[in-house]
Design brief:
alpha/beta; nine-stranded mixed beta sheet; six-stranded parallel beta sheet; 17 helices; 39% helix; 20% strand
Length: 454
């Protein structure tokens, strides 16, 4: 039995009552939370590690609900282009040139950036080397819902992605049986449908059947761009969401990502079927997808969470930054300063994220019996002080620079800014070398309007 006592913290529980302790403490025992708030320290063992968090903030770890591990080494390869160019001319050539080692380095680097930005759980929307992703998650100690990106049709698919419907179904089931609940149950295997551009009705229907059979989730880009909605209308006479509804796919185990181009009726369908939503504000603005109806969905009780998307579409896997953007863009869109307030953003990044991961009974809040996934923020920086409103400061003032420590499954992954799970300097060298090799292999040549002198 191993215990860690964290004391003297400004403790944000995110429990049902949203209780906050100005001078709180928390006891971790093995990988679970044993006590929270004000409690008798007689339950603390004599050999427990004691961490004094005086002047710091203790809160649940952030849940990033849309990540592309395999895109981490592609940061900067697809700036300032539209989505279809981004996908077909940059990201697909890049991703299709990968091998296992490329995926492992990319996945590991992404996990470390997530840890540094306060993420303890993430949802991967699907790459090709899930086994490498599992290895990276196991090594770095983070919690993840992983999936293979499945595609059985569509324009512009690289030869490496040319798979039959049955091949894609078989590999998803094989991955689930091999890896689900591994790494001390930190790894969950989901199923992933890339987009309606690339998924036949048969693949969509049978993936849903598999997800229901194994009681796991489905991760899918939905109503991401207007062209997608128009494509769906041409193919089936219905919008993406209406078509998914007709197929019977709208359900509590579907995570719909982006959801920018929704009608009022489609939002109501999401509410009725308890569809989960991942809002990616930075990616939506950078690739010019549009503005999702987040306040409207939240008002209907739809679990809307926050995701960063991948490095080529956001460039920063920084949940703190995306929390800030989430609040600002919807105030601007609605011309209402009261929508998506700081408390709501914190809910989206924690307990709503846990609901979207289908893990709300295990993570998302600091409560007795839940997994010991949490972060410690140090507000003692010039851009964060004074702290008249701590909750507001977390969302509006702080950044990943303020994330001082990250704990997942009862273990320190980062402590006082030091990554403990691997040699970060060695990883950085691998990232630089491998990224250049992949870009050249994928034949991606980037230009600039500036005059570069060699």
């Amino acid at each position: 039995m191993k215990q860690i006592l964290i004391k003297n913290a400004y403790l944000i529980t995110m429990n049902g009552q949203r209780e906050v302790y100005e001078n709180g403490k928390l006891l971790i025992e093995d990988n679970k939370i044993k006590a929270v708030g004000n409690f008798d320290e007689s339950i603390v063992s004599s050999g427990a590690e004691v961490y004094d968090a005086k002047g710091k903030i203790l809160m649940p770890g952030l849940v990033n609900t849309h990540v592309h591990l395999s895109q981490q080494l592609g940061r900067g390869i697809a700036d300032d282009v539209n989505l279809l160019t981004w996908l077909r001319e940059r990201v697909w050539p890049y991703e299709s040139s990968f091998d296992y080692e490329d995926s492992l380095i990319s996945s590991t680097a992404c996990c470390i950036e997530l840890i540094r930005s306060g993420v303890t759980t993430f949802l991967e929307s699907g790459g090709q080397y899930v086994d490498a992703m599992v290895e990276a998650v196991d090594k770095t100690g983070i919690r993840a819902c992983l999936a293979k990106s499945v595609m059985d049709e569509g324009e512009g698919l690289p030869k490496a992605f040319d798979k039959t419907t049955q091949e894609e179904l078989d590999v998803q089931e094989e991955l689930y049986n091999k890896y689900n609940n591994t790494s001390n149950e930190r790894v969950k295997i989901w199923f992933a449908l890339r987009t309606i551009f690339n998924n036949s009705d048969e693949l969509i229907l049978k993936t849903k059947q598999l997800a229901d059979k194994y009681k796991t989730g489905i991760h899918m880009h939905v109503a991401e761009i207007e062209d997608e909605v128009e494509f769906a209308k041409l193919r089936a006479g219905l919008t993406t969401v209406e078509h998914l509804n007709k197929l019977g796919v709208l359900d509590k185990n579907l995570l719909a990502v982006h959801t920018v181009w929704l009608t009022e009726r489609e939002i109501e369908l999401f509410r009725f079927y308890d569809v989960k939503v991942s809002h990616n504000p930075a990616a939506a603005m950078k690739v010019v997808l549009g503005f999702a109806s987040v306040p409207e969905m939240l008002e209907k009780g739809i679990p809307v969470s926050i995701g960063t998307d991948g490095a080529p579409s956001n460039n920063r896997m920084d949940m703190m930054r995306d929390m800030y953007l989430t609040s600002l863009i919807h105030k601007g869109r609605t011309l209402n300063p009261e929508v998506v307030n700081a408390e709501t953003v914190l809910e989206m990044a924690t307990i709503n994220g846990a609901k979207c991961a289908l893990l709300e009974k295990e993570i998302g809040s600091l409560e007795v019996g839940k997994k010991a996934d949490m972060i410690i923020l140090n507000p003692n920086t010039i851009h964060s002080l004074p702290m008249h409103n701590p909750i507001g400061n977390i969302v509006y003032s702080m950044s990943s620079e303020n994330i001082e420590s990250t704990i997942c499954d009862g273990k320190w992954l980062m402590k006082e800014k030091e990554i403990l799970v691997l040699d970060e300097v060695e990883l950085l060298e691998k990232v630089k070398n491998q990224a250049e090799k992949i870009r050249k292999k994928a034949n991606i040549n980037l230009t600039t309007n500036f005059k570069v002198i060699k």
